[in-house]
Write a structure and sequence with these properties.
The protein contains 5 helices and 2 strands, in the order αααααββ. Helix 1 runs antiparallel to helix 2. Helices cover about 60% and strands about 0% of the residues. The protein has 2 domains: about 100 residues; about 50 residues, no CATH class.
Length: about 160
């Protein structure tokens, strides 16, 4: 169990590096005056702290790695790190599900469209910036297109906006 815990945490720390980079880029895209930016910083703080604490956990557990022992201080630090990570992840969920950070208003968007939303078409960009209807319902983007832009409505039938 001691060997498995050290290896699992080490792999998690390696995976954390690209995750931290992408989250910092996402945070920089949120307007400074937005409440989502504040939540973003509150999300970043416990997650970054937990990552550093997990690095400390690996360091402490290395003493028991070769003997197969679980070091008590490493276990305690790991549990505290996990609690921090869960709290920070909850706030990350709020960024997505409450504030819609990095969410497209297109339920059938392809993986590349979801991964690179800046590459969206002009039709989507214009449609996605419109305000929701009076009743807050979704409208089909192709219903609002002019005849000139609607030469092939099937190409845009899956594009929904608020």
């Amino acid at each position: 169990m001691a060997v498995g815990s050290v290896l699992a945490i080490a792999v998690g720390l390696i995976a954390a590096v690209p995750t931290i980079i992408t989250r910092l880029v996402d945070l920089s895209d949120i307007p400074a005056s937005s409440p989502a930016r504040t939540v973003g910083w509150w999300h970043l703080t416990p997650v970054a702290t937990a990552t550093g604490m997990f690095a400390g956990t690996v360091r402490l557990q290395l003493a028991g790695y070769s003997d197969g022992e679980i070091i008590t201080s490493g276990l305690v630090l790991g549990v505290i790190s996990e609690v921090l990570l869960i709290g920070g992840s909850y706030l990350g969920g709020a960024l997505t599900f409450v504030y819609g950070t990095r969410v497209l208003n297109r339920p059938r968007a392809t993986v590349s469209e979801r991964s690179f939303p800046a590459a969206r078409t002009g039709i989507l960009t214009a449609a996605a910036t419109e305000a929701p209807g009076d009743d807050g319902s979704y409208e089909r983007a192709d219903d609002r297109m002019t005849e000139q832009r609607c030469t092939d409505p099937g190409d845009h039938a899956d594009q929904y906006v608020r």
